[in-house]
Amino acid sequence: MSNFWGTFQVDNVYLWSAKLLTKSRLKILYKIIFPCAIPFIIAGIRTGIAVAFIMVFVSELTGASSGLGYRISISHLTYRTDEMMAVLIILGLLGALTDKIFIYLTNKMYPWLKYYSK
Amino acid sequence: MNHYIVKNLSVHYDKYYVLKNLNLKINKGEFIVIVGESGSGKTTFLKALANLIPYSGKISISKNKGMVFQQYGVFPWLTVRENILFGISDYEQVKKEKIISELLQITRLEDKKNEYPNNLSGGQKQRVAIARSIAPNPELLLMDEPFGSLDSYTRSKMQEWLLYLWSKYKKTIIFVTHDIEEAIFLADRIIILNKSKFRKNIKIPFSRPRLGNIKFTKEFNQIKKDLSDY
Q1: Is residue B81, in this structure, part of any structural domain at all?
Q2: Which segments constitute the ABC transporter domain (chain B) (predicted)?
């Protein structure tokens, strides 16, 4: 959805400037519309990563025989609050680390994103 | 043909006319400044000339034109160099390099060529936008309040720089502003746009090259006073 809405967020000034400088619609698509959509695509992927972590955790709580969700479930049943808290912290750290790695990679691929503000 | 013609130009949104039957003859190489209140249709006029919005009437101007917008139209995802190259990317490599090095030198941005626009000041961004629009060598340059968001010191430096650029490249410029001082300083001719129509056409008598000190002359202030009455 973020990607979809991103393509509608192209500032008219960018489009007008581009139209006056090139006749190529393809060039406008990949040099103007796509870069404008990138922040939205990235926001969509980051949300997706967070949701994916939650879904993995939830599914492991119910039917898995290994994994962090499973460990939390077992720790809960055996009153091992310390172990449960430790696994929850690991889960949170893994989520944060994945997000940081993703941001690091996107900043490497699109260095202008660091300075980009709408 | 030594001039461009605008004949019976009208632009309307539903039943409301933003511009109504405008006629204008623009001499090639002329520096025209259009002044008017906010909402008088100045920007709409430029957009119609640039063929960015639908209009009725006849516009006989060069297809080879560039435009600079009030908001910095530089692409934030491209470096200074890539921005200037945008309109000339299909030129031969040697020609491209020649244009880019000349424009970087003129804009005094050689040391910033690999920077992204968001690392530049307002004046530098606008110099990139101007360089990008003149890179493909347009005959006509349309400028929509390009210095409107700059502080007064930078604005005055940019005005002098623009006049230098204009004298070097001999482009026809149509410049929109609501700043009367800026208009008098830059223009060969000032046209007042008010309530959808051109109301007055004033030739500016100052010789060129012009320096900032003409703004303190009696003649300059007299023209300013005359224009303020509209």
Answers
A1: yes
A2: 4-220
Contact in structure between A5 and B60 (CB atoms under 8 Å): no
pLDDT in tens, chain B (230 residues): 688 999 999 999 888 899 999 999 999 999 999 999 888 899 999 999 999 999 999 999 888 899 999 887 899 999 999 999 999 999 999 999 999 999 999 999 999 999 999 999 999 999 999 999 999 999 999 999 999 888 988 899 999 999 999 999 889 999 999 899 999 999 999 999 988 889 889 999 999 888 888 999 999 999 998 888 76
B69, part of any domain: no
All residues of chain B having their beta carbon less than 8 Å from the beta carbon of residue A117 are 118
- The verdict on B143 and B40 lying in the same domain is yes
Distance CA A94, CA B226 (A): 70
Q: Which residue of A has its CA nearest to B74?
A: A14
Among A67, A91, A71, smallest CA distance to A81 is for: A71
Residues B133 and B148 in one domain: no
Which ipTM value was assigned to this complex? 0.88
Task: Note whether B174 and B215 are same-domain residues.
Answer: yes
Return the structure tokens found at A56: 């993995």
- Is residue A33 within 8 Å of A22, Cβ to Cβ? no
SS3 B3: strand
Stated pTM of the model: 0.86
A118 → chain B, closest CA residue: B76
Domains contained in chain B, number: 2
Q: Are B179 and B38 in contact (CB under 8 A)?
A: no
Q: Are B53 and A89 in contact (CB under 8 A)?
A: no
The residues spanned by each domain of chain A are 2-114
**Distance of alpha carbon B172 from the chain centroid:** 9
Q: Using an 8 Å CB-CB cutoff, list residues of chain B that contact chain A.
A: 47, 50, 52, 65-67, 69, 71, 73, 75-78, 86-87, 89, 116, 118-119, 129, 132-133, 136
Cross-chain residue pair B118–A116, CB shorter than 8 Å: yes
